[in-house]
Design goal:
two-stranded parallel sheet, 4 helices
């Protein structure tokens, strides 16, 4: 028996379904609370859209100020979920500084 996977593909019998995009919002909110930072609304909108279409997010393109702690919350969440769908990361005027860059590098 096959199960429906994100992206409209079906999982073969014995193959685990990748629910990392589904699990992202809950874990990300916890990380934001722990780091005392606001949730990145643009990112959450993209995650919600992807979940609504049973797909995964493959581009992280942000242009709002998220600062180092916000960057850490985002990329530690991806790292904890072993998120393997990201193909492109572009950040403009986000003020991530060294600590944020380190979080991105750890994820990559």
């Amino acid at each position: 028996m096959s199960k429906k996977k994100a992206g409209g593909k079906t999982a073969k019998a014995g193959e685990e379904e990748d629910e990392s995009t589904i699990k992202f919002p809950k874990l990300y909110r916890k990380k934001c609370e722990a780091n005392n930072v606001p949730i990145c609304k643009l990112l959450m909108s993209r995650i919600d859209d992807a979940n609504g279409e049973s797909e995964h997010v493959n581009k992280i393109h942000l242009w709002e100020e998220i600062y180092p702690a916000g960057t850490r919350a985002i990329f530690e969440t991806f790292e904890d979920l072993e998120y393997k769908h990201i193909k492109s990361i572009r950040l403009w005027k986000t003020q991530v500084e060294n600590e944020g860059t380190r979080s991105i590098c750890n994820f990559i």
